[in-house]
Amino acid sequence: MTAARAARRLKRVPSRIPGDPRRFLADPRRALVLGLVLLALFVLLAFVVPQAPLELEQRWNEWMSDIATAVLKNIALVFNYLGRGFGRALLSPSRLPCSSSPDAGGRWLPSR
């Protein structure tokens, strides 16, 4: 391969950095084909997945309704509360080191 040919090839592909998200769109045909495949998969799943609940889901729902008690409801409400408020507050400090560390390029990511 000649130097001029290599220079033209590098101009076509703007990003050669491994893991760079812009590299996916370096070849528009590849992006178009992948997009069409994903669209076809979505349409196929729209026809395959039923709109109504499955029989297993119906039986599970009936069984849960049959064994429902105030104690189980209160336990579910505690888990619901932990997932919304208190639990998020406990988990937020664990995300802090991840969101305030430098990325692969040495730049600092903004805190969330």
Mean pLDDT: 76
Fraction of residues in β-strands: under 5%
Gyration radius from CA atoms, angstroms:
25 Å
Terminal Cα separation, in Å?
47 Å
Query: Percent helix among the residues?
Result: 55-70%
What is the domain total for the residues? 2
Regions with pLDDT < 50 over 5+ consecutive residues? none
Number of DSSP helical runs:
4
The helix-and-strand class reads mainly alpha
| Topology, number of strands | 0
Globally, the shape reads: elongated
Strand count, sense and barrel status of the largest sheet are:
none
Helix-strand pattern: HHHH
Layout of secondary structure:
Layout: H1 3-12, H2 28-48, H3 55-66, H4 70-99
